[in-house]
Amino acid sequence: MGSKATLRGLRRQEEVTGWLFVTPVALGILIFSIYPVLFSLYASLTSWDLISPPHWIGIQNYVDLFTTDRFFGVALRNSAVYSLGTVLPGLALALIFAVLLNQEISGRFVYRAIYFIPVVAPGVAVAILWTWIYEPNFGILNFLLRIVGIRGPRWLGSSQWALISIIIMAIWSGLGYDIVIFLAGLQSISKDYYEAAAIDGANALQKFRHVTLPLLSPVTFFVLVLGVINSFQAFTAPYVMTGGGPANATMMLVLYLYNQAFRFQHMGLASAVAYCLFFIVVGLTVVNFRLQRLWVFYEEAR
């Protein structure tokens, strides 16, 4: 009996010790993650300006966003265009460069490092750099265009070109990360598949289409899902480069949320925008996972 009591005491002591170690982490998650999420949900159902107490208005903020708010639709459309303009072209370019950098060429490790530099560079610094590049009178881009006899547009000062300019910058800055992911996927493909294809008489293009693309599809799916999620969270580039202008041409959902919350103190409306963004991202992610069965190939499933 004494030994059993001692064993129970040791187990209880271990349990208490374990809870003591877990408690700071659990409190951190509760205070800094769960509580803000739940409170923002409550705030989205109120009218709140940070000064006066929140006033319960139900789903009126959500109704206003989709009925009377002119700029939410503009921000949603710009975010969708930005997502389409960055994810698919960026994915295709990253795959092309990854295939090239996967070849046995001299200095390939240097090239890989160079392509990854924009990824580790601060987002604000990259945005300022590209603002100088796009400067219509003294920027290097219009200078190069003038050399070949082309008059460059105002880029960030034009409502037609501003969003395209930010999309180009976003593709450039995120290309290195996708290249590294694709390179890892390419190097995980066994050479036996290519040797078997060569025995069957496949040329380089056929190997790429029938061997590389199917076996790389899980990596492509991973890059696609992350790209869609990140594209709808774009904030730094439009905030630093254009502030959402000109004429709201680069106003995106997160920037619109920021303006509503911290410029106009419409915290309830901003919280509603945050939850709309959340459901949009979740919905697109679910669609991607549902569609993956049509084109994603997993070796272990064969």
Written description of the protein model:
The protein has 302 residues and is mainly α. Helices cover 74% and strands 1% of the residues. The protein has 12 helices and 2 strands. A two-stranded antiparallel ribbon has the order 1-2. Strand 1 (46-47) and strand 2 form a beta hairpin. The chain is globular. The chain starts with a helix and ends in a 7-residue tail after the last helix.
Brief sketch in words of this structure:
It is built from 12 helices and 2 strands; from the N terminus they run αββααααααααααα. It has helices spanning about 1-45, 60-65, 70-100, 110-120, 125-135, 140-145, 160-185, 190-200, 205-230, 235-240, 255-265, 265-295, and strands at about 45, 55. The longest helix is centred in the first third of the chain and has 42 residues, at about 1-45.
CATH homology group of the largest domain = MetI-like
The CATH architecture assignment of the largest domain turns out to be Orthogonal Bundle
CATH third-level topology of the largest domain: MetI-like fold
Strand order of the largest sheet: 1-2
Beta-strand residue fraction = under 5%
User: What overall form do the CA principal axes indicate?
Assistant: globular
Our measurement of the CA-to-CA distance between the termini, rounded to an integer number of angstroms, reads 57 Å
Gyration radius from CA atoms, angstroms = 26 Å
Largest sheet properties: 2 strands, antiparallel
